[in-house]
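User: Batch of two.

Assistant: Item 1 of 2:
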Amino acid sequence: MRLTTAQALVRWLLAQRTELPDGAEGPLFPGVFAIFGHGNVLGLGNALEEAREELPVWRGHNEQGMALAAVGIAKATHRRQVGVATSSIGPGALNMVTAAGVAHANRLPLLLLPGDTFANRAPDPVLQQVEHFGDPTTTVNDAFRAVSRYFDRITRPEQLLNTLPQVTRVLTDPADCGPAVLALPQDVQAESFDFPEALFAPVVHRPTRPRPDTRALASAADVLRGARRPLLVLGGGVRYSRAAGRAIRFAERHAIPVTETTAGRTLVPHDHPLHAGPLGITGSTSANAMAAEADVVLAVGTRLQDFTTASWTVFAPGVRLVSLNAARFDAVKHGALSVVADADEGLRELTDELGAWRAGEAWAARAAEERAKWDGYVDGLRAPSGTPTYAQVVGAVNDLSGSADYVLTASGGLPGELIGGWRAVGEATMDVEYGFSCMGYELAGAWGAAIARPDGVVTSLLGDGSYLMLNSELFSAAFAGHGFVAVVCDNDGYAVIHRLQTGQGGAGFNNLYDDVRTAHARPPRTDFAAHAAAMGCAAFPVDDLGGFRDAYRKAREVAKTEHRPAVVVIRTHPSAWTDAGAWWEVGVPEVAHRPGITAAHDDVAAGKAKQIRYL
């Protein structure tokens, strides 16, 4: 078939199918986010226009934002569908690097198609081209190499035949999942080739389920049988395997308390008697108390990030770690006994290997006892009192959410409030982007989630800082007709970083507006509601918690019936936080002009003495 490179690429996108979370078949690439420029409008742009009835194209207004929306699609569909984003060369391409970093850190699939400079180099230097004096092959797209799982620059049309199978390998591989980047020189996009029809034959991609090595499985079972106080930690790999039910049955059969990581939140019903709560700094005292006494930890589908392990102080010295993970890279970390396998298959075979073995009933009962204490603490935080707090706002959203709804956040203090304080109302219904903690993901990711999950209400919680960082995709979503609710908590700046700054002995500086340099006696403030309304959104400014509940109900209705974002703005307390009582290692200066900083450094040294050090 005589096609241009761009036409072949688009036709290939259309041929890729996937098994959706509900078992139905759907497109692997449900749509493309695009901002056209001279580097992609004629080649890829014309090819997308030809297929506009089959492949939706959504216009973004910031390349980073639209690529983050593509990431949001991947998370909302549990990695079963892949968002695509294309930009022109130069600044447009570089704006998508941050989104690639988000996808890479969170092991999420993303396909980026940045335009590139001319492969033939005849018109060099072209508009937006940077020139490297000693390497003419280098372009700005080489910046993607650090944040991509797969990178290729297509300099001849026929190279697609070799690279496209590798692209789908990375995008659908549970162990190697992450962003793929195809840099497309603008002249090559327009060049043609006789492509074989087989390249465009429909292919259905189903999640692979590698089974564990029998010897590793037997060793893991031996370790668990020797445990008196085992603990099960569920991560994002359990979500992407759709193995939550299997994990709960495993825990019930063997009487093992269960905790969740950030990526594993909402996998376990909140009131399940074996649920100890979320683990780590942004988790709960209940899970952390169980972790401090556990003698064996079975970590499934998690890379055990520092917020989950409290910088490796949450577990007891001498704990034995068993890691079941589809990625060998993660399974072998921290001296773990590694079992490389799909979460669902691995837990199925491990429970068969364990047979009728059960942990102690008294230890299993501790999970509900400890979680009840944490629930009481959170109930106290949710009680109305003065200026609304993050915990109260989260509680109100939680109370008004149903099993089909979806909640997300990414940065600032809200991840801690959502991870620690949310009570699951549906399985895998939370997205806390805390691998890269990208300010601005909250709005862009919500747009992608709203596209992927049209049946429920998507709610994003964010601070005023994140809103100001990246809000352009509010208009993109409003224009396209995708409704979601954004709850903007205005606490006068970057409050959680102010907390870290002052909590480690420093002076408040350049975070809260009171400590930011200005030439004005009364500096300007943002009217978030007016701004959101000007972007085509419904806006609901409120002053108190009662008003918030009413406004949030209305916002949910607007998002569903008017098909546009609804933004609820509420002033919140700048220093009221949910605290799981865990430690986190940060770089506090050894030498400083403030005694409080040097004292904090001594506290860091004391914390580091408690860190568990593995291989």
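Item 2 of 2:
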Amino acid sequence: MKNIFTTLVIILYGSTFAQEKCAYQGMLVDSLNLPIARASITAFDEKNESSGYTFSDNYGEFKLEMPCPAKYELEIEHLSHASLVKSIDLKKNLREKITLKKDVVSLDAVVAQGRIPIQVKGDTIEYDAASFASGNEENLEQILKKLPGLVVENGKIYYQGKEINSIKVEGREIFGGNQKLISKNLPADAVDKIQLNKKFRANPFANSLQDDEQPELNIVLKEDKKNLSFGNLTLGGDAQKHYDVQSKLFYFSRKTDATLISDFNTYGNEVFSTQDYYQFSGGYSDFAEEGGESSLRSSIGDIGYSSGGNAARMQNHLGALHLGYIPNQRLTVSAFAMATDNETEYSSRSWRYYPEFTQKDVNHNLNKIFSFISRIKMDYSAQNGANIKYCVNFNHQNSESLTDASTFLNDEKTASVFRNSAGERDNYAINQKLSYIKKVGDDDNIGFYFSHIYQKVNPNLKLISTEAPFQQWLNLSKKDNQFQLNQKRELMANHLYFLTIYNHLITNLSNIRIKAGINYSKENLNNTIFDYTTAIKNKNTPTTSNFDFNEYYLDATYTRKWGGLKVDAGLGTHYFKANNVVKNMQNTDLNKIMWLPHLSANYEISPSNRIYFNYTKDYSVPNISDWSPAYEITSYYNLYTGNPGLNLSQQNRVSLGYFYSNYFKFINLGVNTSYSWSHDNIRNGGYYNPTAQFTSSYNVPDVEKQMAANIHFSKRFSKNYNLRLNANLSNSDFYSFNNGSFIKASSFSHGYNLRNSIKSNEKIEIDFGTRLNFNDFKNEIRQNKFTSLSPYIESAFVPSKNWLIEVDYSFPNTWTDGKKINTNHNLKASLRIKPAKKTYVKLIAGNIFGNNLIVNNGTNDFYTYLNETEILGRYFIAQVRYKF
């Protein structure tokens, strides 16, 4: 880590340290000798690399400090004056007066040449979208990826290591501020400015020392997009099995806004993911953003969505509507509703390499998922200076899954077991949240937050097998040469959260924050397993569990600022009581007082340099499923039971980071490191045999440790070349419970992504690089090494404003223990033409080499695995898009 960091510093500053710096000062005036303010001045050295960037002040003055002696080329631009390119030979400190001529070309040309790429206005950084766009961008996300200081990964946006959880358009929240839905659907040609607020506060009355500062993005639309409907409609498909229908409609006015998005396709264009559902559904994560805390482990899991293209047959449907209304300056009302339907069908093969035997499954899979999500939100600013917010979510999710599995043991040529499993699951959730925040006097503010969450989940399963499933634990009868096992399960949960936060500004440099909260949770679990239609009765089934959880906490944090250093030191005390009553089984009671210290420090060396340190301690309490000794069938080869003797787990985490951002030299560097250790960590482990697994939850008897680090570096070396590097590293020491004993294990992984971006004459843009990942796993029984390498190139060619050609190629390779198990050539190409003013025609060829499988590998507590999944083959799509 130290060597990597040192190398980056040398790259950034080596040439600077080797030379003396000279000051080049200038004064910009017009033909009447009047000063020209807010002109941009960029310096390039003889290698065409950026050496400095600044603006002229209100008196036309500017100053650049650059290594000397050296020759430079200055590019001076202003909205109402002709651009000027000036060569200078900088041997010593130099001052000159420079005259700019009035621009006499058309307004369009002036706007194209005179835009200011970046402006810093207090805590807000404003990017000019056109200055970073190349003309081939279709949505907001493709512009965000090119902005210095921002990192976009897997649809998420980060600034200085912090995830940006709020994106607004024209200062308004759309679709709950969901990053992905906005960034992937807002048309790029509608965006004028992108404003990054580095110190957004959810509390409108927060003072400068409160620690709830988070970055936020606001998208400013072009003037011709305001008070008018805009967007696009797309219709596409092929002559056989594929279709693609999209609508993206937007409307913004002074009081109202509306957005309608729909996307129906069958060729792997991902429109919704598990992460999207989690963010939209709200739940406790929304309450935690206000400062709420809860130590209870979640008992209701999410349904996993298939990722784009990872199925031989698929249908992805999404429809979403957002409405916003501002009747007056005090009240804002917004609502949205969204429905998604996802269906995938594919065949797969999986190998599970246990220490004693190998198990191979040949599967045919069909999955259907339907989701409906809705939200109504109101924000009211009362006349007494208070802010009141109310939000209610209703979510419903239904999934159906069918799997036909043939299992082979070791080198068998004929399957030993045939199994058919059919699962159905319904999730319902209603989440209400109310907050009242008020400023008290000049130095105090207080907030009250209340949340209620009701959840219900019904996961049912029907399993048919030629061999008795889980015969060591369940006694089943045979009928018509087969066994049938059915499970009916119902889990209901009610959660109440109350929180109050009081802030007092002691002095301009110190603050005290008092936080108090109460959590109540009540959960009920009913589970019955059937042999055909007869309920199986033993000590683990049928089961009825009733779970109660109460938690009370008080936390005090003192904040002090010394110059650029800000320190938050605090201590919290938590008392919880958990009780799980299981009918005719072992009951569990647990209560304890916990003391949780926390410390954070942020040192702003300069506006471009920041170092932070953070330490936290927390704990997690087992949920109703963790504690209930009831049998639960989680898959056709896994049976789970809870552990009434399970104790809480405790975690400690220390993190340290450094960030450097120079927006005018287009340099961005971020280094994050963390170290965590846990006591009594909760893990799943158990027993296995050639046809089944039996798992339960256990507390690890020793300390588990994890170290992680990641580095992000980007720099625009010249007008036409940009470099980005991401590197991550992690090392874990942990335990697994394997066939009756705890086994110590370790995992060391590191990955790299190098991306080069080249532009040429604003007509060609090429991004190329490679992704490289290593993972070494080792325990007392086995050791495995996994490696993946994927060089890639993404290119766009704009021969004219009416033509766009894009070609993407990647070459993924995968190795296990030094043996290559997969290699592919992936090629995708598209041609977009503009035959009419608002009409685009696009031809898309995907998976041109016709790869039919994706391969992934890895390991878990029991075995090493290798999966081969059938995917969508070669396809050709024609699209017609109308923009308005």
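The first strand starts at residue 20 and ends at 29.
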